[in-house]
Amino acid sequence: MIADIQDAKGCNLTASIGSHWCTYIHCDITDEQQASEVLGGITLQSNGRLHILFSNAGTMINIKQDILNFDIQAYESLFAVNVPGMAACSKQGARAMVAGAIKGSIICIGSVAASTGTESYIDYTMSCRNTVTVSSVGVSEEEGERMYESSSCLKGVMKAKHVADAVVFLASEEAEFINGHNLAVNGGWAG
Q1: Under a CB-based contact definition with an 8 Å cutoff, are residues 183 and 136 in contact?
Q2: Contact 59, 81 (CB under 8 A)
Q3: What is the residue-averaged pLDDT of the chain?
Q4: What was the pLDDT predicted at 23?
Q5: What is the distance between the alpha carbons of residues 111 and 109, in angstroms, rounded to a whole number?
Q6: Rounded to an integer, what distance in angstroms lies between the CA atom of residue 33 and that of residue 24?
Q7: Residue 140 has pLDDT above 50, yes or no
Q8: Which residues are known to be catalytic?
Q9: Which neighbouring-strand residues pair with 136?
Q10: Which H or E element spans position 87?
Q11: Are 106 and 53 in contact (CB under 8 A)?
Q12: How far is Cα 175 from Cα 178, in angstroms, rounded to an integer?
């Protein structure tokens, strides 16, 4: 099941994976009732159980937010997705796993900004530092992958496959005793 507010992207992703493997449903995670309906209701009805919750819920606004020109309304909009939205997904996913007697995995994508910060987007940095995750994969932003290449300890550019491999590992039995860990997938970039 793929759930998002970006319907075109969600449908395209579902088509690229194959509709026999997954379905798409519109869900705004800033509304906990929608998260509950998708994770606790629709997913269980269509699949019977929830084994893995992979949450890539997060947003970054395109407004430079420094401390002198801080837009509180923009921050609250961003925060609603990045903190309570992510928490609602984790909560509802955990409830579905308990209801199905499943020892599952909840994996949340984080950002390198949670550990390094930025002075131009302090709202985003604050929201990253306040996320509630079970296990997370901390990645540098897609748009910035070339920017970080020169300051990375490893040569090359981070690809989606690098993140996917980390997620597959965290969802596997090999990681059953890993909990509350931020697995940094960033080529050694430390800010």
Answers
A1: yes
A2: yes
A3: 75
A4: 85
A5: 7
A6: 18
A7: no
A8: 124
A9: 108, 182
A10: helix 86-99
A11: yes
A12: 5
Three-class secondary structure of residue 53 per DSSP: strand
Selection from 142, 135, 137 nearest residue 178 by Cα: 135
What is the rounded distance in angstroms from the CA atom of residue 42 to the CA atom of residue 31? Answer: 16
Q: Tell me, what's the pLDDT at 160?
A: 75
Q: Contact, 130 vs 78, CB < 8 A? A: no
Q: Which residues of 76-105 are buried (b: 16+ CB within 10 A; e: fewer)?
A: eebbbbbbbbbbbbbbbbbebbeeeeeebb
Asked if the model's pLDDT at residue 3 lies above 50, the reply is: yes
CA distances from 142 to 11, 157, 170, 185 (A): 21, 10, 21, 12
136 or 107: which leads in pLDDT: 107
Mean pLDDT of the 120-131 span: 59
